[in-house]
Specification:
Length: about 475
């Protein structure tokens, strides 16, 4: 448990979802926790405030007085950051976020690491919810916040620790993937695609990171992987542990068939090794969420969750903030907040919503923001990602100059391509213009999906206020 006396631990870039969750857990362990960040916005700023964790705006050496016992440096921090430079100069003890997790929490727990390019947050949350409802009292750290939960992190009394395992690098001083620190006993890999173009040069480098993760699963551990993903299938022959697969085909250990999506959620028949097991319902839309649920079924079965508890847990799962989160319905107009930023995730989210509401008008409002999105790597991918929407609005590219010259995403080229394919797409110069355009054109029954991995200048609140004022 806690060291005696408790440590003063300061987190630089505390408002990232992972860093904020770690701060909550460290405080639950009895430590005095402080933090600083450049951008402070909900939901993490709200979580930290509710936990009475002081957050200093901006970065300055003054935030290191009195001197902390340990400084956790987030992977958003680069050399030149005043606090990081002072830590190095003064030889203050420091560590990355995943290293801190391992040191303080993981050595005596059964570690379930949920990975993949897409679906990590939802799958981790869903598994934590199922085990929580079943009375296992797990620990967990999630890169998001389940709806109705105060935080995405908890230090439970049970033996299991559930972690969202990110392939992104750990810190400027540790370029290994975060999930390599997590001492995995059970690993879920939902899918593998290219992403994070700021640190990976190609898909092969990402696959190598996942191969290294598989290589540290113990012999008595378990790899749970998609039977429908060729890159995951290529990793399995080298796994030193038991393997279970999930997917749509009959070759998967856990398979979903007869999938039916309605406004109430998604229902499917579950087959185990080719034999019908049960009919499951999740209050979420889309085939991608069925895949997430299958992975949860496999992991829950492995750790001994009673079957009926798994079924009822999946059926009552409240969802995750910013994962097609319904923020409000005003005059029959549905306003959603969604984190999707990769073309595959954008397409899956919109297709799921379209399946639930085949006859309604869907608006996709997208902010190109991530380090990968602002590069050309997904220029072609985005040209088909929005097909399930009736209308598409684009915000300006966020900090386009951070992409290498000659390798920058072109919004103009994308819109021209969408127009050529007969899609209604428009770029607008700022959030206020987007909201005003929507107010002038939306109708009762419309579904508005705002997509960004950032704060999007609080566009959801602005939209809801405008609708309320009508």
């Amino acid at each position: 448990m806690t060291t005696a006396p408790p440590l003063h631990i300061h987190l630089i870039a505390i408002c990232g979802t992972g860093m904020g969750a770690l701060a909550v857990m460290l405080k639950a362990q009895g430590h005095h926790v402080t933090g600083s960040d450049k951008d402070v916005y909900p939901p993490m700023s709200t979580v930290l405030s509710e936990q009475n964790i002081p957050v200093y705006k901006g970065f300055t050496v003054a935030h290191l007085a009195p001197q902390p016992d340990l400084v956790v440096i987030g992977n958003a921090v680069s050399r030149g950051n005043p606090e990081a430079e002072a830590v190095l100069s003064r030889k203050i003890r420091y560590a990355s976020m995943p290293e801190t997790l391992k040191t303080f929490f993981l050595w005596k727990k059964t570690s379930i690491v949920v990975t993949g390019t897409h679906g990590k947050t939802t799958t981790t949350s869903m598994l934590a919810w199922v085990m929580e409802q079943a009375g296992f009292d797990p620990s967990y750290i999630i890169g998001g916040i389940p709806i109705g939960w105060a935080t995405g992190a908890k230090l439970g009394a049970g033996d299991v620790f559930i972690l969202e395992g990110d392939e992104y690098d750990s810190a400027f001083f540790d370029k290994r993937a975060k999930f390599l620190h997590y001492l995995p006993d059970i690993v879920i890999i939902n899918n593998i695609e290219f992403d994070h173009a700021d640190i990976y040069n190609n898909l092969d480098e990402i696959i190598l990171a996942f191969r290294r993760l598989v290589n540290i699963i113990p012999e008595n551990g378990l790899l749970i992987g998609s039977a429908d993903d060729e890159h995951i299938q290529a990793l399995m022959p080298g796994a030193p542990c038991t393997i279970q697969t999930f997917g749509e085909g009959s070759h998967a250990r856990w398979a979903a068939r007869q999938v039916n999506i309605t406004p109430e959620g998604t229902t499917f028949n579950l087959y185990e090794e080719g034999s019908y097991r049960d009919q499951l319902t999740i209050p979420m839309y889309g085939a991608h969420n069925v895949q997430n649920a299958l992975a949860v079924v496999a992991a829950a079965d492995q750790v001994g969750v009673p079957w009926e508890k798994t079924v009822t847990g999946l059926g009552s799962f409240p969802g995750v903030k910013r994962r097609l989160e319904l923020r409000g319905v005003i005059n029959g107009i549905h306003v959603y907040d969604d984190f999707a930023h990769h073309p595959t995730a954008v397409e899956a989210t919109l297709c799921g919503l379209r399946s639930a509401y085949p006859d309604k008008r869907i608006w996709a409002i997208f902010e190109p923001r991530t380090a990968t999105t602002i590069r050309r790597i997904f220029q072609a991918g985005y040209s088909i990602a929005f097909d399930a929407a009736d209308y598409i609005l684009f915000a300006p590219i966020y900090l386009p100059n951070k992409a290498p010259e000659g390798n920058r995403f072109s919004l103009e080229e994308l819109i021209d391509g969408l127009h050529t394919r007969g899609l209604d797409a428009l770029a607008l110069p700022d959030v206020d213009r987007i909201v005003n355009h929507l107010i002038a054109h939306v109708q009762p029954g419309d579904h508005l999906v705002f997509m960004s991995n950032g704060g999007f200048d609080s566009i959801h609140e602005k939209m809801l206020k405008k609708l309320e004022a009508l």
